[in-house]
Design brief:
There is one protein chain. The chain has a single domain, classed as Sandwich (Jelly Rolls). 0% of the residues lie in helices and 51% in strands. It has strands at residues 12-16, 20-28, 31-38, 47-48, 53-60, 63-67, 70-74, 79-82, 88-91, 98-105, 113-114. It has a six-stranded antiparallel beta sheet with strand order 1-2-3-10-5-8, with no helix packed on it. A three-stranded antiparallel beta sheet has the order 7-6-9, with no helix packed on it.
Length: 117
Protein backbone atom coordinates (compact mmCIF):
# COMPACT_ATOMS: atom_id res chain seq x y z
CA UNK A 1 0.00 0.00 0.00
CA UNK A 2 1.33 3.43 -0.93
CA UNK A 3 1.47 5.90 1.92
CA UNK A 4 2.26 9.61 1.97
CA UNK A 5 5.01 10.33 4.50
CA UNK A 6 6.70 13.43 5.90
CA UNK A 7 8.50 14.41 9.06
CA UNK A 8 5.01 15.07 10.48
CA UNK A 9 3.72 11.64 9.37
CA UNK A 10 6.84 9.49 9.44
CA UNK A 11 7.19 5.74 9.87
CA UNK A 12 9.31 6.40 12.95
CA UNK A 13 10.89 9.37 14.74
CA UNK A 14 13.93 9.20 16.99
CA UNK A 15 16.67 11.44 18.36
CA UNK A 16 20.39 10.83 18.11
CA UNK A 17 23.16 12.53 20.10
CA UNK A 18 20.31 13.55 22.45
CA UNK A 19 19.47 16.61 20.31
CA UNK A 20 19.31 15.76 16.58
CA UNK A 21 16.06 14.49 15.02
CA UNK A 22 15.55 11.76 12.44
CA UNK A 23 12.31 10.80 10.68
CA UNK A 24 12.17 7.50 8.75
CA UNK A 25 10.36 7.99 5.44
CA UNK A 26 11.35 4.68 3.77
CA UNK A 27 12.71 1.80 5.82
CA UNK A 28 13.42 -1.54 4.20
CA UNK A 29 16.48 -3.74 3.68
CA UNK A 30 17.26 -2.34 0.22
CA UNK A 31 16.70 1.37 0.87
CA UNK A 32 16.46 3.79 3.77
CA UNK A 33 15.30 7.41 3.37
CA UNK A 34 15.30 9.79 6.31
CA UNK A 35 14.77 13.47 6.93
CA UNK A 36 17.10 14.74 9.62
CA UNK A 37 17.63 17.97 11.56
CA UNK A 38 20.81 19.03 13.35
CA UNK A 39 20.80 22.16 15.53
CA UNK A 40 23.61 24.70 15.15
CA UNK A 41 26.94 23.54 16.56
CA UNK A 42 26.25 19.80 16.42
CA UNK A 43 28.16 17.01 14.70
CA UNK A 44 27.98 13.31 14.13
CA UNK A 45 30.60 10.79 15.25
CA UNK A 46 33.13 9.79 12.58
CA UNK A 47 32.10 6.40 11.14
CA UNK A 48 31.79 4.30 7.99
CA UNK A 49 29.52 1.69 6.43
CA UNK A 50 30.89 -1.53 4.95
CA UNK A 51 28.03 -2.08 2.47
CA UNK A 52 25.90 1.06 2.30
CA UNK A 53 26.43 4.07 0.10
CA UNK A 54 24.67 7.27 1.12
CA UNK A 55 23.37 10.41 -0.54
CA UNK A 56 22.71 13.59 1.46
CA UNK A 57 20.51 16.37 0.02
CA UNK A 58 20.51 19.63 1.98
CA UNK A 59 17.06 21.22 2.49
CA UNK A 60 18.13 24.13 4.74
CA UNK A 61 21.46 25.38 6.05
CA UNK A 62 25.00 24.45 5.09
CA UNK A 63 26.57 21.12 5.99
CA UNK A 64 30.27 20.49 6.45
CA UNK A 65 31.20 16.92 5.61
CA UNK A 66 34.42 15.36 6.77
CA UNK A 67 35.22 12.49 4.39
CA UNK A 68 38.52 10.62 4.68
CA UNK A 69 40.09 13.66 6.39
CA UNK A 70 38.89 16.22 3.79
CA UNK A 71 36.21 18.84 4.48
CA UNK A 72 33.52 19.64 1.91
CA UNK A 73 30.80 22.29 2.34
CA UNK A 74 27.38 21.53 0.88
CA UNK A 75 24.76 24.29 0.73
CA UNK A 76 20.97 24.35 0.50
CA UNK A 77 19.63 22.48 -2.57
CA UNK A 78 22.95 20.67 -3.11
CA UNK A 79 23.75 17.01 -2.53
CA UNK A 80 26.73 14.77 -1.86
CA UNK A 81 27.32 11.03 -2.22
CA UNK A 82 29.40 9.08 0.31
CA UNK A 83 30.61 5.69 -0.88
CA UNK A 84 30.66 2.52 1.21
CA UNK A 85 33.86 2.29 3.22
CA UNK A 86 34.55 6.04 3.34
CA UNK A 87 35.08 7.38 6.87
CA UNK A 88 32.76 10.35 7.23
CA UNK A 89 30.66 12.59 9.44
CA UNK A 90 28.38 15.58 9.00
CA UNK A 91 28.88 18.81 10.96
CA UNK A 92 26.64 21.85 11.39
CA UNK A 93 28.99 24.81 11.88
CA UNK A 94 26.17 27.24 11.04
CA UNK A 95 24.04 29.42 13.28
CA UNK A 96 20.74 27.82 12.22
CA UNK A 97 19.28 24.32 12.03
CA UNK A 98 20.60 22.04 9.29
CA UNK A 99 17.91 19.95 7.57
CA UNK A 100 18.60 17.26 5.00
CA UNK A 101 17.35 14.12 3.30
CA UNK A 102 19.54 11.05 3.75
CA UNK A 103 19.22 8.08 1.39
CA UNK A 104 21.13 4.87 2.19
CA UNK A 105 21.33 1.93 -0.18
CA UNK A 106 21.15 -0.72 1.10
CA UNK A 107 19.82 0.27 4.52
CA UNK A 108 22.49 1.05 7.13
CA UNK A 109 20.75 -1.20 9.66
CA UNK A 110 23.58 -3.17 11.36
CA UNK A 111 26.12 -1.50 9.00
CA UNK A 112 27.70 1.34 11.00
CA UNK A 113 31.21 1.21 12.42
CA UNK A 114 32.06 4.16 14.70
CA UNK A 115 35.63 5.50 14.74
CA UNK A 116 37.10 6.59 18.06
CA UNK A 117 38.67 10.05 17.85
Amino acid sequence: MNKVVSKYQSLKHYQWANICDSWNLVDNAGLSVKQEMMPAGTCEQLHYHEKSQQFFFILAGTATFEIEGNQIEVSTHEGLQVLAGEKHRIINNGKTNLEFILCSQPSISNDRINIEL
